[in-house]
Amino acid sequence: MSDDAATPDPTAPTRPRRVAVTGAAGKTGRVVARWFVEHGYEVRPIDGNGLAGAYGPLAAELGVGLFRADLRDYGQTVDALRDVDAVVHLAAIPAPGLFPASTTFLDNTAMNYNVFAAAQLLGIDRVVWASSETTFGLPFDTPPRYAPIDEDHYPLPDSTYALSKVVGETMAVHFAEWTGGTYIALRLSNVHVGDDYAAVPGYQFDFALRRWNLWGYVDARDVALACERAVLAELTGAHSFVIAAADTLMEAANAELMADQFPGVPMTREVGEHETLLAIDHARELLGYEPRHSWRDQV
Fold first, then answer.
1. Cβ contacts of residue 48 below 8 Å, gap of 6+?
2. What are the phi and psi torsion angles at 248 (to 5°)?
């Protein structure tokens, strides 16, 4: 078992034990599903890709087979989510430009609706799901209104992908009102796994390369931590949180980065030399989220 997380107390009756993770065969989903398995949860990994049952790589990593379901279909979604206590919903088209805009919007919106509605039907009162930093106005071809960016720098969708996430957050608010359940949106920064860190040294010579999200990122292991914190948080209703690393991806100081790329953007508070410009204060306060991984330890 990893030392990275607080293992749930098996005697606590209000803590969910059976967690469905959608998008479990994806880049982030694999890490998140593995995290929950390693921390003592019964996990149902769900994905529309890969082979059902003994899906080789994932089964070897998790010790449990993949439940294959197309979450664009409501009936399949209901069947996939039966008999679980909480849902961590990561399945989505993960970025703009991968599919036609209409496909991105309609597929992401359908999957979100079906997961939320299936949870309502099945009495699942905890849904944690992947929203996006793009809801803040990324990429910042138009400069942000201020920095560091927080949850209030919303909604400013600049793509159909971002719009699908804003619609998802709006739906979550109303499902929470209808059900009395908890719907937690994690506005994830650019997720990094081990192989991604090899590119970081190449960012250092051109500040413009990563200006599109204020030089932000998050390690997939910290996404997993945030997902567990959100599953366990003593919250009701709909909530949204920025989830990013504690630092930027750059060796240059924030003052130098901002002066070079966003000279007219006001800073609303002092920040550390390399502190993230995607503020995670809200997640720290309400979720107990404290990122543990930095590119500085990887490169």
1. 68, 69, 70, 71, 72, 91
2. -85, 175
CA pair distance 161, 217, nearest whole angstrom: 18
Burial class (CB in 10 A: 0-12, 13-18, 19+), 23: buried
The CATH class given to the 18-297 domain equals alpha beta
Which residues lie below 8 Å from residue 270, measured CB to CB, with a gap of 6+?
A: none
pLDDT band per the 50, 70, 90 thresholds, residue 60: low
Alpha-carbon distance 76 to 215, whole Å? 39
Give the count of beta carbons closer than 10 Å to the beta carbon of residue 132. Answer: 27
For residues 119-123, average pLDDT: 98
Closest residue by Cα to residue 125 from 182, 209, 52: 182
Q: What residue type is 208 in one-letter code?
A: A
Fill in the amino acid letter for 48.
Answer: G
pTM of this structure: 0.93
Number of helices and strands (H, E) in the chain?
8, 9
Classified as helix, coil or strand, 89 is strand
What value, to the nearest 5°, has the Cα angle with vertex 170 and ends 169 and 175?
A: 95
- Give me the residue spans of the domains in the chain: 18-297
Q: Using alpha carbons only, how large is the chain's radius of gyration in Å?
A: 19
> Do 284 and 233 touch, CB atoms closer than 8 A?
no
Query: Which tokens is 269 given?
Result: 């508070």
What pLDDT is attached to residue 16?
A: 85
The residues with which 241 forms a beta bridge, in sequence order, are 186
